[in-house]
Amino acid sequence: MNINNKLQKIKTNQIIFYIVLSILTFLEVEFLNSDAAFFKIKHRIVYIILDLIVYFSIYTIIGLYSKKILRSSLITLIVINIFAWVNNIITQFRGLAFRLTDILSVKTAANVAGMYSVKFNIFHLIWTALFIVSLIMIIIWSKHLNKISETLTLKNKLIFSVLCLFFIVAIPFEAYTALGLNNFDGCYVGGYNLYLLHSAVPNTIKKPVGYNKDNYSDLTKVECTSQKRPNIIVIMNESFCDLNRVVDIDTSEDVLPFFNKFIKEENIIEGNTYVSVFGGNTANSEMEFLTGSTMGFWGEENLCYSMGYSKYMDILPNWLEQIGYDTYGMHPATGDNYGRRGVYQYMKFNNLWFIDEFLDKGAKTIHFDKAAYFLKEIISDSENYRIITEEIARNDKPVFMFNTTIQNHGGYLWRGYNDVKIQNKVSNSELNKETNEYLTLIKQSDKALEELITSLKNSDEDTIVLFFGDHQPAVSLNLSRDLGKEPTRKEIFNTPFFIWANFDIQEMHDVDTSLNYLPNILLQQSGIGLLNQYQKNIEQVREKYPVLCVNNTVDSSGKELKFDTVFKSDDLLKEYKNQSYHVIYDAE
User: Fold this and answer.
1) CA of 147: how far to CAs of 65, 137, 157, 346, 431, in Å?
2) Are 239 and 471 within 8 A, CB to CB?
3) Chain segment 370-426, per-residue pLDDT in tens
4) Residue 442's closest CA among 266, 238, 252?
5) Residue 79: how many other CB atoms lie within 10 Å
6) Which pTM was predicted?
7) What is the four-CA torsion angle of 421, 422, 427, 430, rounded to 10 degrees?
8) DSSP letter string, 30-99
9) Nearest of 339, 337, 382, 338 to residue 358 by alpha carbon
């Protein structure tokens, strides 16, 4: 055999080695990817091929620059599977896959990790078998391989490296656009490898094209002719939803007896508000409401609270303070979560209330040994609302309270609640327990809400209440799938909302809207009216797009649209982004 044939055999053997290793790695990762959801979807041959090309490219480029194939292959295999395991665990916790941007909220994740338990199933056993086979193959086969890099000229080595890098970068990033994948279901449709690499796309906040700060000097100048100053209470209730709006279930008792009766009454606006998050990342819902902006502008996969601000944000709390309100940013847990204490200061809340402030005001807690440290002492919705009403009575000024509750925080296995039970046959025993605990918590929220509304009905002070859920719990998606239904994005990226006051407001039912519009609707119904040109411009957008959310956009004719497609072609939305950028990232 001449030298050229020997070189060709070396290359061929190593190429086959990396192909087989890529196939095994792909199978391992996908069997950990949400209970092998990838394999439940038909006609995915294109994605499988793309995934295998990326795995092959990763192994090859690392092998080119490593002294030993054994070491480089083992390390690469282990690192890839570590990410697969992290994804498997994170998905069990919140229902959404792990993204590289989640590293920005690692402290918050560490805080809540103790409340969840990892569930093992047949797919973990399959992964174990595949991983052992991969290890054996690498150890035995790699000993018989020489390094390709030793047989390549420098020129060919560089060409091969550039080609591999091209596949590693281009396939994940371009496939999502060209093949219609997105940051919610792309993980299950296109495979986790492409999803994870795609999540590495840098999406820092940049000045929008055409933005000129001088154009917005008077954008948020507050002009208010109304003399009305009712107390304004905004309750963003943790993981609040009605599971029956997602999947038909039978329960041992009515879960939301007060809520469902109350929203049918007069003097109320109610419906669905569309949100950009599911199962977690509560802070993005806070951001959308308080800024009147949308995550569609900043990237649905990003955590807005970690993306930087100007010295302060010229947004709702600041405007209300200018017309005489005492403003409160309230969350009855540690202020470290999502960096809220610092962010609320940037938002110019007069008062920052976290768990210590609630305890100082006499809030009683419920102790849970199995909870993460910051939730061992839970402040229930009932106690939360009691402290709110007492503070309103104490304060001589009108108040604006933005209150993010904590009672219903997942996971749902550490409290041991099962007062309300699901009657449907749920195949997964732990999911059954989670569902019962979640339903019991929502039942408690319903009772607490009734107490709050009753108290405010009997109050002499004019008060208006906006109530909505920040996102649905992972339980809603997991339960739907267990009961044989695959919910749409539209079904799971929304939560119930209502606006009610103890004085006359306009009545509207079955309203579909999105979080960025709720401040406008709230201020209009309060009698205060829109406070500046920014809000008036948002109202023009709302007339054209009554729902504007990265997961669900609807125009005035009721036609459902893709946010990214609409944004690219609509100058009104581009100007909306410019103005949002100004109030959040370029205020003075």
Assistant:
1) 10, 17, 12, 55, 49
2) yes
3) 776 667 789 999 999 999 999 999 999 999 999 999 999 887 888 889 999 999 999
4) 238
5) 12
6) 0.75
7) -40
8) HHSSTTTGGGGSSS-HHHHHHHHHHHHHHHHHHHHT-S-HHHHHHHHHHHHHHHHHHHHHHHHHHSS---
9) 382
